[in-house]
Write a structure and sequence with these properties.
Blueprint (H helix, E strand, L loop, with lengths): L15 H9 L4 E6 L13 H17 L2 E3 L22 H15 L6 E6 L5 H14 L5 E4 L3 H16 L5 E4 L2 H10 L19 H10 L10 E2 L6 H21 L3
Parallel strand pairs: 1-2, 1-3, 3-4
Antiparallel strand pairs: 5-6
């Protein structure tokens, strides 16, 4: 006996008729993930943040229920990574316009909520800035819920690495033990394990992040890593994915989704 095919939630893999049916059946929430195409040290590909956002969006949609997943905005705000070849970056106004256009496209189709989050920490200051403008520009019938707490995500990564392997100190927020572990779960074939190396190992706080945004990652970490990927494992990756999913789901639920 064949098992039933898992229900597809990604709009780009559905037909228009299937999406209309899903909306009629109550799928009125859309998940909008943001990512980035930027360097992630010598051992991870530039797709890390977008791969992460893809996976989190599906998890969030399944947990919330009655939700569909929009295509990830793969290029984000990454000027602080432009010192490394291949990194792409859009202006804050461009990222805001893309999010506005995505959400605006949904307004006439029967969606009533959009949950917006990022797999790239560098997008969060931009999201916090444009949230009120986004809400003001869209029809009142479409609620936009923007998850904004990047500090909580970093803390969740630290707690995940610490609880699984006692490696919370290896989390620096970029190509570290958490992100490397997530990629070992999602795309192990993309991880160059033999090239993994520690980068900046100092304190990562708001003051440090402001310095990075001004001076660039290469000014503080020549190899582009913040933290240490040593000790990465699928167990840490699963814990980190679960923890961040919990954060976004709890926020979206508390704010109406």
């Amino acid at each position: 006996m064949r098992s039933e095919r898992p229900r597809e939630l990604r709009v780009e893999r559905l037909t228009s008729a299937e999406i209309a049916e899903a909306i009629s059946a109550g799928a009125r929430t859309a998940i909008l993930p943001l990512g980035a195409i930027e360097q992630h040290g010598p051992h991870l590909p530039l797709s890390v943040d977008s791969d992460h956002a893809d996976a989190l969006a599906l998890r969030i949609a399944h947990r919330l229920g009655a939700a569909l997943v929009l295509p990830t905005v793969k290029v984000g705000y990454s000027p602080h990574h432009l010192g490394f070849p291949g990194t792409l970056s859009v202006r804050p106004s461009t990222l805001e316009a893309i999010c506005l256009d995505y959400c605006g496209s949904l307004a006439a189709h029967g969606f009533t909520r959009v949950v917006l989050f990022s797999g790239h920490i560098g997008n969060y200051p931009i999201m916090r800035d444009f949230e009120p403008r986004l809400a003001a520009a869209l029809p009142l019938a479409l609620q936009v819920i923007v998850y904004k707490d990047s500090a909580a995500i970093l803390d969740a990564w630290r707690k995940s690495a610490e609880s699984v392997a006692g490696l919370g100190s290896h989390v620096g927020g970029h190509a570290d033990v958490a992100e490397t572990s997530v990629m070992l779960v999602l795309h192990p074939e993309k991880v160059r394990v033999e090239r993994a190396a520690a980068g900046y190992l100092g304190t990562v706080d708001e003051e440090f992040l402001q310095r990075v945004f001004v001076e660039g990652i290469d000014a503080v970490s020549p190899n582009g890593v913040l933290g240490d990927p040593a000790g990465s494992s699928k167990a840490i990756g699963h814990a980190a994915l679960d923890a961040v999913t919990d954060l976004v789901v709890a926020y979206a639920t508390a704010h109406g989704a």
